[in-house]
Amino acid sequence: MFLLKILFKIGAPFMFLFCFSVNSYTQSSGIKGVITDETNTPLEMVSVALISPKDASFLSYTTTDLKGTFFLKDIPKDTVILQLNLLGFKTFSKKMIYKKQLIDLKTIVLKEDVGLLDEVVITAVVPIQIKKDTVSFNADSFKVNFDDNIDGLLNKLPGIEMEEGKIIAQGTTVTKIFVDGKEFFGGDPSIFLKNISADAIAKIEIIDKNSDEAELTGINDGNKEVVINFTLKKSKKNRGFGKVAAGLGLDNRYFSNLNYNQFNSKSQLSVIGKFNNINVTGSNIQGFLENADGIADDSSDDSEDDFINPQKSLSGFLKTVVTGINYGKELRKKESFNVDYFYNLSENNGVSDTKRVFFSNTNNFNYSSKNKYLNISDNHNLNFNYENKANKTSSLRIKGKFFSDKINSDLIREGLFFDTMDELVTTNTNTSSNSNLKKYGNLNVDFYRKLPKKGRSYSTSFKAVINNYTKNNNQNTFIETNLNKTNPSTTNFEILRDEDLSSADILVKVKYTEPLGGNHYFNTEASSEILTGTENTNQNRKTIKTTTIEDAIEYYYKYSENSFKTKFSHSYNKSDLNISTGLELQTLHRSFGEVDEIQFIREKFYLNPSLFFQYKPKRGQKFRFTYRKYIKAPRANQANPFYNDINPYAINTGNPDLKNEKTNSISATANVYDFNSSFNFNGKIQYSNSTDAIIRNVTIDDEYIRTISYQNSGEKIRFNALLNITKKINSLGVRLSLKNKFSNNAANSIVNYELNNVVSKDYLTSLILQNNSKRKVDLKAGATYVVNNTSFSIENNLDRKFTTQKYFGMVDFDFSKRLNVNTQFDYLVYTDNKFLIQQEIPIWNAAISYALTPKNNIIKLVLIDLLDKNIDVYRRSTLNYFEETNLQSLGRYVVLSYTFKINSGKKKINKSLKT
């Protein structure tokens, strides 16, 4: 009942908004008509553009449907020109006076053969087209600056967001990037986005791509992935192009960039390079973000229990050296090979201040620390992809990824512990020097075979993942306790801990599909996954108090997890409807323990049902519902019975008696892209309920030492809802984007042997307004409001609420064809009822660009953080503490740069209007 109430509350607004968009067709205004050829056959996908005769500005756009009909709405009251375009037919143009009343043009006949009309017509650059499963954007329709890269262009496109280096299109993460239809920089697509110039792109296509199996068999199984394809301008093909840039600034700031590309119909080559100290990365920055404040010891396992954990920005001072190369080759038609290599050498140092409130049923206390850190990363990343679809009855894909990452981290933390009377009782100074080397390899092989009978096929998949993680930790912790008493004491820990962790995960899967007739299919699938791993640990500790005590820990831990699955399913597949129901039989066998000692052995059998439903009633609309049950075994460290006490104040141990976690998950999505009414809608609901939930068990003693273990207890409930709306209001000349997120997470924790129920509710609302016509001026303004409510059953006075408010405005103005000025102002407000000080951070950035020659030589002055606030704020809530960290950021800097573009192409006069 609880779930139904939530679904109703969230779903009702979704249905109202959708019905509103549909009902808008019945209104008595707009322009409509039917387009046919000379034989009276309706013409689909005719581009219907409405432009202003005054300045050739773009007003509205749509395409015809299967019946050749179109309907344009939301048109300003004015004289307008209707223009119809379809390849193979003459362009049709008609001038009209629109008075906010319905104009029915009845039937319009297009004549074959492209030819010029006797009168001069203005050809509109149509910014957006939609064809079946593809949304296509004309890059020239969106204003970008001289030296913008592709990520800057994507930020201009409706329905596309950039989050943590990933592309979110139509509410779904883009899985692959193609250039002229060929996969590019498969290992890390953000490299491509951050380095290739936006002005090299002619068209951007967001494609709902069929699975490899569906492409081979021709049976639409509904399993699609969202990919993005960039089509290069003709002037960039068969010629080298790119850019070289360098800049110097105040306070010894510098940067340099290099990008060179060579593309033709058979091969593609791209080379990039970066060298700077202005906190600009090529990619692969996630490791730094995780440790940007130097906290890498007692927080490393909190991620699953974070109820609010916003993405960190990169703080401190970063030096980066980046090089990368991509090479792709079409060996023959539908057979290609692609390989890329990426190297990143980075050095990040800075300082931060942390305030943390710990809580338990008996002993709440406050903690604060000052942190100074230095992280150096040496990262190598190699990816390759081979694809062969030349055979009409089979296809093969081999994909591999290999990387190594060596990180050296130095940290000095000065921590202070306060009792409930806010008296200082304990201090600790932790000095650590850690060297970590991680090696990773991943190989995927997928083979699909179409058999003679239509719809009959089989496929085999092989996946191998190998990890090796070597940690060399050197920790020195000096502790002073009982500072509020007459007999304070001191303790010093000197710890050396070496860990070698290795794992291998092998998955083999076979699937067979048998047609039953009438779009019905029977599928059977069998898979075997074997996960094995070892942990070899050697620790030596010297404890210096009144006397010196030395002890050592040494163990060799081994674990294995074997999962055998057999799945039977029935599917009904049509172009507009996919329904699949299945039942999976799973045997999960686990064994673990110290080598040459008694092993822990666990084996269970499970039945896991699943349901998939997808309906696409018309072009631009898709509705999906999924349900599945899955089993999650404890992670290796959660079941490891040995202690990890390298941090004397955060001791970790596992629980070998943990049971598998069982989760029922449902999700529902609705995507509506209605270009007739300029209305885009994306909604998503996710709900999961886990039983035998694996939760944390925390004990805190009188000396503030936490011992963290794991236990199965009760349920873990997660509910998430997303609503995105984009609406173009032509009468006002603006585009409105509204984004809403809601999440409700509930889980148990055990603190000092008492069960604690924690409920966290998060709300996010974001509104962005921007102008439609961007010939000279690009305007954008918006606000984001985020609130987190966390409640605890241990003590009600620990309930927490904090908010983040962000207001921003951006102006990008072309004073001339060569001079551009850009400025953006952000104002952030952080409010938290557990931290009395309200943080208010204004951030002002600006840039001035001037092209010395048309599109080639560019001088740019960049001014960052003009108000020199030099601070970032990071907050998080977990099951037994919440904290706020203030991080030193780069602060104000000014850089003057010069960019030279290679093969910028001949300048062309374009009468079309950018929108």
From TrEMBL:
Residues 1-24 form the signal peptide. It comes from the Bacteria. The keyword Membrane does not apply. The keyword Signal applies. Keywords: Signal. Residues 450-743 form the Outer membrane protein beta-barrel domain. This is Outer membrane protein beta-barrel domain-containing protein. The lineage of its organism: Bacteria, Pseudomonadati, Bacteroidota, Flavobacteriia, Flavobacteriales.
